[in-house]
Amino acid sequence: MKILITGISGFIGSNLAEYFLDLGHDVIGIDNFNDYYDVSLKRLNAEDVKKRGGKIIEADLNAPLSDLLPSDVDYIFHLAAQPGIAAHVTLEEYVQNNIFATQNLLDWTLARARNLKLFVNIATSSVYGKEATLPEDAEPRPISYYGTTKLAAEQLVLGLVRTGQLKACSFRCFSVYGPRERPEKLYTKLIRSIYEKTSFPLYQGSEHHSRSFTYVGDIVEGLTSVIGKEVLCNGEIFNIGSDHEHTTGDGIRLIERIIGMKAVIDHIPPRRGDQLRTAAIIGKAKRVLGYLPRTDLESGLREQVRWYREKFLD
Asked: What pTM does this model have?
């Protein structure tokens, strides 16, 4: 199979690419290597993908795509996005990179990818709003630019399904962590601060926030479970995440225990748009896709610490 992955040098995209490459599939990706976080980290991910045989096109999804992407792809996994909840990112950037870029990719898909079996959109639990504890058919109530624009992108994709122009589905991912997690995210930032003996900035009250922390390998298994189930998946939305909740404080204590050192916590003002609780309701994914997250939080965090040590310390 030939698989196109947008955002291939990112956290989930690079893990997904390696999964398919290890199975012997032809993987090509596109990534703009923007500077939202340290580009050198994306280059590390990209090199790992290339070593396994993946091909990467360095370009922006807002650019003309006609001559950039191969038309003979079987699946498209759309992960490229302006991520996170960051005060320094403008609404215009979220709109450009999450809405306009998605529409540009969809226009190319309709015009060029004639033999496509399925377009797989990767969304986020942030579409649900302050408390992401709902099934897929609940009304989304996003409270951040990120959640709002990712919901809009998802609806652009599903709108083409409703009009019979595209076969597609969408996954809403819950609190993903693991090897290659972005540097501004909780665990990578925490691990780095402990090893570097610097203070760890923690939003006030967030140690009590509850999350369906989900290991990236379990997310990859969920995304790839669509293969061969295209008819069942077409037009559907799936929550994928762990069905076990832990507080941010639980995660901090686990990292401290794994590393054997305490974090120096620096409490900072709460972040606008942050979710108080995420709890993945995954009955639909279990029933339709056979989805079953297997990695407990401690095991996943041990893998993330191991990855960090291997890449940045050893």
From this structure: 0.96
